[in-house]
Each structure stands twice: as structure tokens, then as C-alpha cells.
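Render this sequence as a predicted structure.
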Amino acid sequence: MGIFDSYQDDGAAHAEVVNAPHKASISHELLAAAASFEAAKAYEKHVAANGKPDSHATAKELLAAFSGAFVDHMVETKGLDAIDKAKAKKAAAAKHDEVFTEEVFVES
């Protein structure tokens, strides 16, 4: 079981955010779920190309970077505001803390 399996429920949120029109009304919760999903995909791709990170902390930093990049991109392309951006990044980080535990890192 890979990390991506832990984020499968966020796939619908990802599709909704990516396919939303410019100036869409996207909640920060929805954006965070989509960012978490995108980060899990990017993390799996990174691990496949570069191997598993040396530590759980490094893996979480990668997830935060991947989700942050997705949030930044969506805020820019969908016309969202800085408040939604900050809230989405915080919510995505909380999701990673909840889902990507030390045990999940060790098992993956």
C-alpha cells in the first residue's frame, strides 16, 4: 500500500478544483483536499524516481512543498484570494499530519 492510497477520497475534490472555471467559488477546504491529493501523486512519483526519503520529516516537507505548489497554481489560475490560499495551505498541512503518520511512512 502506497501513500497515494491514503488520499484516494480526495480525488473528486481534485477533479472539481482543476475543472472549475476562473473566478470560481472554491472553498479552502475543497482546495486543501485537492492539494493533498495532488501532493500524494507527486510524492509517489518522486519516490519512484528518487527512492524513499531518509526520514518521515523529510517526506512531510516534500508533501508540504507539493501541496503548496498546487495551491499557489490554483490560486493564480482560478483567481482566488490570499486568505483562501493561506487557509488551504494550513488545511492541507493538517491533512498530511493526520494521514501521513510515522507508521504510514515506515510501511510505504
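Summary. The first helix runs from residue 11 to 18. Residues 3-19+26-107 form one domain.
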